[in-house]
């Protein structure tokens, strides 16, 4: 299903429509999620969640309900509605076709594996960034938001059994990767590509929005870096599934390492940002750049490879 590009709205209007649609569905989802929690666990649990009182015995389950009903589902629903019924061009805006060289997922795996030192150094730089004195209030708010997000993440990623780990791997790893990639590398990146007429600008703008969306300001640079990687994976391959795979590897690794650390299977704290040295940072940069060059060469057909 497609439509004539000349008859589509200007990309700036598309962006406003998509943002309005997404926030509207998220708001409706929050009301539905809160109603479900209230029916199951009572008004007090809803109030406790609003106040982040995690001592409530039903807080964790309630948080998961709100997360899925008010965020995860609305994001994918808004992307599908926009692509199928508003612009009526799903392949162009979602890029959901499984058609890319078979070697690309392998390269993506090694890019994500070897990029860990780069993510660490960007995180360390980010943590040391200080706003001007007159923005002290903003800095405190950013730190409080970061600490709050960290607290929620720690609660949601409590895993005592393999089954609980596998469930989090499915929801946090795979489902989150799919819905966020459809939204950002699918709809939003396509809109900004049309708007700027420059795929590189679209990738970086989308990556910045992707990082800001998570409201974790002291993790802005590493998440933006990931968004840039995901963006180029899609632009070069033409398929959203290469970035979904990369996103899943990133999120899934966090889930697995957190589970192993919580259950004392490994001693490396997943929150530790001082694992690598400067030699590792340089080596990581060289390997990632080489792998990205290889990915681009294969994805753009300069080397003939079997296609999925």
TrEMBL record:
The chain crosses the membrane at residues 15-43, 63-86, 98-119, 166-188, 200-221, 228-249, 275-295. One of its GO terms (biological process) is proteolysis. Keywords: Hydrolase, Membrane, Metalloprotease, Protease, Transmembrane, Transmembrane helix. Residues 164-252 form the CAAX prenyl protease 2/Lysostaphin resistance protein A-like domain. One of its GO terms (molecular function) is endopeptidase activity. The keyword Iron does not apply. The keyword Hydrolase applies. This is CPBP family intramembrane metalloprotease. It comes from Mucilaginibacter corticis.
